[in-house]
Amino acid sequence: MMSTESNQGEANYPACIARIAQTLGRWDGPIVIATHADPDGDALGSALALKRALASLGKATHLPLTPPRYLSFLAEPDELSDPLRVLPEDALVAVLDVDVGPRLAGVPVAGTVVSEAAFTVVIDHHGTNNRTGNLVCVEPRRAATAQMVKDIIDALPLTWTPQLATPCLTGLLTDTGNFRFGNTTPEVLHAAGDLLSYGVAYSDLTDRLGWRHPDYFRMLGKVMSTVTFPLGGLAALAEITQAMRAEVGPTDDDSNDYVGLIRYAEGALVALFLREEPSDDPQPRTKVSVRARRGVSAQAICVSLGGGGHVAAAGATVREGLEGTKALVLAAVRAELVRAGYDVPEA
Ligand SMILES: [Mn+2]
């Protein structure tokens, strides 16, 4: 039985990062990098930066990940692979931006273990991480997993290039809402400044990250026509259904985009976006994205629904249809608003 090492708080963070860099740098076998299903800019960006760094050190690397269309420009097609049903012999698995559990994609998982991994490293900035693995670094005070990967790459014997810095900066940009959210610390901006100095084409990158397929804008119109302001206007709620998908066609709908728009509804403390998921099994699933402000915790709402995330932004997948999920979500939001001391009108 291999021992588990984990950082316990900020004091041990530099040591934990150094230990991960040392472990990765010394690993002779293949290194598989894996992140959560439905990868966002931080998941893809941090994974791609780490893969490129390790490949440049001569490691055999695998990145079994399928990016959404709007992020696919970041990766060369030959850098990504299909999900691995079986791991290569003697593989170290680096798990980024998620814990070892049901949301981890691309590698075989049994419970809280990556099946047949010779060694498992976990690097994440979500405080809700279950901290299972041989070497675990969880630091909620980092704005993005990409910020932690930058620290790891800084500790590796290599020179930064635009190819390393661009995906890393992408993770910082997307997880801080382009440096607007409360997680935008001086350290984040210093890290971003470092990455810029390594030759990132910044305005090209931020422009490209905003591109969406025309069907996205057709869908946007439909999504915005669903907006309501329940709980006396303390919440803003929008949804996307399978029927809307059937009408517009399969669009690259990123929940973050939609919830990121309605979160600015004046008076709303909580923004909610519900996405009816395609499901092969008879049990329906609905993805919930939550944003919150002013003492209201999106994390508390999502943890009560079986999900996780941060205080300002969190998510969950509920095994219910859209209407059932909506009732559960509104009850959870009401409870959290009351806990946070707000007067919520009766429905
Ligand atoms: Mn992240």
Task: Sum this structure up briefly.
Helix content is 36%, strand content 16%. By secondary structure, the protein is of the alpha/beta class.
What are the main properties of this structure?
about 350 residues; alpha/beta; inorganic pyrophosphatase (n-terminal core); Diaminopimelate Epimerase, Chain A, domain 1; six-stranded parallel sheet; five-stranded mixed sheet; about 15% strand
Structure ligands = manganese (II) ion
What structural class results from the helix and strand content? Answer: alpha/beta
User: Helical residue percent?
Assistant: 25-40%
Strand content: 15-25%
Q: Shape, please? A: globular
Oligomer: single chain
Instruction: Supply the CATH architecture of the largest domain.
Output: Alpha-Beta Complex
The low-confidence parts are: none
CATH class term of the largest domain: Alpha Beta
CATH topology of the largest domain: inorganic pyrophosphatase (n-terminal core)
Helical stretch tally: 11
Mean pLDDT: 94
Main sheet: strand order: 1-8-7-4-2-3
Q: How many beta strands in the DSSP annotation?
A: 13
CA radius of gyration? 20 Å
N-to-C span: 54 Å
Main beta-sheet strand count, sense and barrel state: 6 strands, parallel
Give the tally of structural domains. 2
CATH superfamily of the largest domain: inorganic pyrophosphatase (n-terminal core)
Helix and strand element order = EHEHEEEEEEHHHHHEHHEEHEEH
